[in-house]
Amino acid sequence: MVAAVALVALTAIVFTGAAVRVTGSGLGCPNWPQCYKNGRLVAELNSHAWIEFGNRMFTGFVAVAAIAAGLLAFFRGPFRRDLAILGVLLPLGVVGQAVMGGLTVLYGLAPGWVMGHYLLSMAILVAAGALAWRARPAFELDERPAADRATAHAVWALFVLGGVTIFAGTAATAAGPHAGGAGTGDVVHRFTFKGSSTAHWLIDRHGVLAAALGVLAVATWWLARRRGADAELRARLTRICALLGAQGVIGILQFQLDLPAEIVWVHVALATLTWVGIVLAAMQVGVPSRAPTTTLSPTHRPEVRTSS
User: Fold this and answer.
1) How confident is the model over 224-249, as a mean pLDDT?
2) Could you please report the per-residue DSSP string of the chain?
3) Rounded distance, CA 285 to CA 155, Å?
4) pTM given for the model
5) Quick one: CA dihedral 35, 187, 122, 261, positive or negative?
6) Which residues pair with 297 in a beta bridge?
7) What percentage of the chain carries pLDDT values higher than 70?
8) pLDDT of residue 140
9) How does residue 268 score in pLDDT terms, banded at 50, 70 and 90?
10) Do the Cβ atoms of 120 and 96 come closer than 8 Å?
11) What is the pLDDT of residue 305?
């Protein structure tokens, strides 16, 4: 339960962080760890300062949830090394995020730091998703496989391509109009390695990867149904396909409307939810080499031992 709360909190902090950026509030608190250089911790009474300060305050709750999940992973009986390792990664990741966020502010929202900040969040979600999946009461180290080897390979291919697509998306955002400093009047450097066409060039590459990810998701969904994968996995893949379909529509819409902030925020939020779904699907199928090579039957699934 605590691991699931930590996963939700780590997902929600991405939503609030994206809100900081698209509202142009990234430098609402222009210093770190204090809000201002004069040592003042609390934001002044203006909306952009409080949006950024609110995100920092919510980070405190996320840290508590991550630390609690990490500690309980150690004290859960019987002791499991896999949970202990994953539990350590969560608070370490939150500390890394705090430091990365501080450096992002101190370096004036430079695009490379902003990209790293978001990508670190995606990496932490991998650890949080693995912990939430493996710590659930129904999990067994010897549990029956959720899918055959071909389906498992397809799910992990989805994981890899999803990560690459997210990276390309952050690069496209780093060249776009939402630098995070518009609300406070700060000028923030953007990627310009292709001149004025940099944003369009990156958006095109991101779009190609996203389309390939959608095709692969549908193919994986079909394969899971065809080869008798677990019903929970099939349902999760269905949700992933639906999210990617919505992402495609929203991505085209935001491009046609010249990237309005509200739609960009929705795009980031759905991308994060899609990534969490892909992570959980990968955790569910486990290591492909340990999955059976034959199609699974709904009434008979061969037992396969998985290491901790």
Assistant:
1) 94
2) -HHHHHHHHHHHHHHHHHHHHHTT-TTSS-SSSSSSTTS--SPPSSHHHHHHHHHHHHHHHHHHHHHHHHHHHHHSSS--HHHHHHHHHHHHHHHHHHHHHHHHHHTTT-HHHHHHHHHHHHHHHHHHHHHHHHTSTT--TTPPPSS-HHHHHHHHHHHHHHHHHHHHHHHHHHHSS--S-GGGT-------TTGGGHHHHHHHHHHHHHHHHHHHHHHHHHHHHHTT--HHHHHHHHHHHHHHHHHHHHHHHHHHTT--HHHHHHHHHHHHHHHHHHHHHHHHH--GGGS-SSPPBTTB--------
3) 8
4) 0.88
5) positive
6) 300
7) 94
8) 66
9) very high
10) yes
11) 40
pLDDT range class, residue 298, cuts 50, 70, 90: low
* CA angle, 100 then 104 then 13, to 5°: 60
**Average of per-residue pLDDT across 209-228:** 95
pLDDT of 13 higher than 60 = yes
**Residue entry with tokens 């250089």:** 37
Partners of 300 in beta bridges:
297
